[in-house]
Amino acid sequence: MKQKLKSLLHTEHPQHEILALAMIGIGLILICNDFYFFWPPFAVGVLNDDLVGGIFIAIGIWLFSWAISDKNSISTNRNLLIITAGLLAFEAIAEFCHGYISGHPHMFTAGFLEVIILLFDFSIISKSKKHNY
């Protein structure tokens, strides 16, 4: 039983799983809060759409499934990590802009946390295989 549980929980890519859970968490926050973004006023409707949070969740699930899969494509890994970096950079910039406009310190905190997750993503990118040889 212990061996079976260990084989279920063992993965070759624990950092990818952690990053995937962070992306899913961010996506759930964005979906659950329909008034998360309030600036710029012309983009509020698009930014608060559940599709934005859904994209975070979809990439997180895809990244998690890649991490636990036996068939790990290097190009899929590279593309997922690059898309994740872009989404995290967008979210961090949005948090800093909202914090500056509103003056709420918790938005700066969220921005810094997303920058830290972005740096974690860059660390994974730098350690990942780049080619098949």
Low-confidence stretches: none
Q: How many β strands by DSSP?
A: 0
Number of helices: 6
Q: What helical percentage do the residues reach?
A: over 70%
Question: What is the radius of gyration computed over CA atoms, rounded to a whole number of angstroms?
Answer: 17 Å
Protein name: Lj965 prophage protein
Keywords: Membrane, Transmembrane, Transmembrane helix
Transmembrane segments: 20-39, 51-68, 80-101, 107-125
Organism: Lactobacillus johnsonii
What can you see in these coordinates?
By secondary structure, the protein is mainly alpha-helical. Helix content is 77%, strand content 0%. It has six helices and no strands. Helix 2 (14-32) packs antiparallel against helix 4 and helix 4 (50-68) runs antiparallel to helix 5. It starts with a helix and ends in a 6-residue tail after the last helix. The mean pLDDT is 91. The chain crosses the membrane at residues 20-39, 51-68, 80-101, 107-125. This is Lj965 prophage protein. Keywords: Membrane, Transmembrane, Transmembrane helix.
Short description:
This protein is 77% helix and 0% strand. By secondary structure, it is an all-alpha fold.
Question: Secondary-structure blueprint of this entry?
Answer:
Blueprint: H1 2-9, H2 14-32, H3 44-47, H4 50-68, H5 74-102, H6 105-127
Helix pairs in contact: 2-4, 2-6, 4-5, 5-6
